[in-house]
Amino acid sequence: MIKRKLSAIAAMCGGTMNDTTGGDPDVAGVTINSRRMAPGQLFIPIKGENFDGHDFAAGAIEAGAAGTLWQRDIAVPEALACAPLVLVDDTVTALQRLSEAYRDELGVRVVGITGSNGKTTTKDMVAAALSGTFRVHKTDGNYNNHLGLPLTLLDLAEDAQVVVLEMGMSEFGEIDLLTRLAKPDVAIITNIGESHMLQLGSRAGIAKAKLEIVAGLRPGGLLLINGDEPLLHEGLKQAALPEGVEVQTFGLQDGNRWSAGNVAVDATTSVFDVAGDSGLQRVELPVAGMHNVSNALAAIAAAKKFGVTDEAIRGGFSGMKLTAMRIEPIRAYNGAMLLNDAYNASPTSVRAAIDLVSGLTGYKRKWLVLGDMLELGPEEEAMHGDIGAYVNPAKADAVLTFGKLARRIADEASEQFGSSADSVKAFEDKGQLIEYLRSRMAPEDLVLVKGSRGMRMEEIIHDLQRA
Question: 163 and 288 share a domain?
């Protein structure tokens, strides 16, 4: 974590100390949450639509904060008149400037990752591939926005060698901001899906927004793009790459610089060879899915850029810890295999999950439990219908849906299942869906659960774990 004198913090973030008579306290770390503050940290109050962190600054000082940022347009209350304050024009901008300055002082190497799907899993994979060779730090949870990424940078240890940063967005300009703060040596775009179609208008718009990551790439850096996505190739024609940046492609189709062969996937692992002259054979991942093989290729390419050996990459993958609810294998109360993919959902990621289930064998019955996909814009009903049309009895034995939009999945899937249409059920009550599934799920079954974050589909998983 950042450890500096308060005066140094003020200089780094473009602020001024309000009172120097009280000394120059040492700062050890930063926080924007006064309830989780540790003594010695710098408190950074954030103003939101319905709250103002400045209201909690006095309490933070009383609890042991070394100091606090304070926005100049807000009057300093009497209780803080002699407190160690750093006056800034805007606390969010100051947080971002502080993180950028700290990143530059450390000289740490950075891998930045964006994409519609697979960002978090790819982040975990890159960190794992590098961990046997470098001291690696990575984004914690979903700290991938204009606040989370700066906080991740400021949490870096002084001796960190590589940081792997996830970059999320919902609007144009957001990735541009994050990448200019992070200045990645390697940038990865996992794919282009349909998430945030409502804000960005089209998949081409999403591709353009994701390609903003090149704005912060260091000269001589590496841009890794999913070569199976034509929109990224088209978008690159309009992108201004920094001097000396190399572009490499990864993916499952022929013609990519990084591709896979001899792939074998089951419910808990994926094994593959890296095609071409890399020499990396029989890579084993503790996660299922062809799309995750593609993500792993990006991680391997990033590791190779940093000179990591094949043995270290394999070892890193073998001990990899994935963030929860990304095709997470869990046993149900009766022994059935549950695949918890409930963190989020888009048409692209749902099709990938259906393809995974389709390719798995050895189960008595395969269930798809699908919830609403949110933030898809005016075409959302049609997109749900397309998912239903994509499902058929060759891919799964039964389809259960939860939510008003997901009912369109069930309607179209019923057409595909024909005389087996009783295997397709739509629910708007989660409890009724759980009761239905519990009464029919056999120990030899496989159940995939997926939906957008707002649908809280993991509650189904949790219930199925309880006896």
Answer: yes
> Could you tell me if residue 99 is inside a domain?
no
Here the tokens at position 228 are 């199976």
Indicate the pTM of the whole model.
0.88
Note down the domain range covering 17. Answer: 3-91
What is the side-by-side strand order in the sheet with 283-285?
260-265, 270-274, 283-285
The count of other CB atoms within 10 Å of the CB of residue 240 is: 7
CATH number at residue 414: 3.90.190.20
Give Cα 244 to chain centroid, integer Å: 28
- Flag whether pLDDT at 142 surpasses 90: no
> Given 91, 125, 152, which residue is the final one in a domain?
91
Averaged pLDDT for residues 317-343: 92
End position of a domain, from candidates 318, 336, 365: 318
Extended beta strands in 286-419, E state: 328-331, 337-341, 366-371, 398-402
Structure tokens given for 300 = 């391997």
C-alpha atoms less than 13 angstroms from C-alpha of 26 in its C-beta half-sphere: 4
Residue percentage of the chain with pLDDT more than 70: 97
402 and 458 co-located in one domain: yes
Quote the pLDDT of residue 421.
61
Contact of 299 with 121, CB cutoff 8 Å: no
Q: In what order do the strands lie in the sheet with 42-43?
A: 16-17, 85-88, 67-71, 42-43, 30-31
| 17-45 burial code (b ≥16 CB/10 A, e <16) | bbeeeeebbebebbbbebeebeebbbbbb
8 Å CB contact between 40 and 64? yes
User: What's residue 233's pLDDT?
Assistant: 94
Do 271 and 148 share a structural domain? yes
Domain assignment present for residue 101? The answer is no
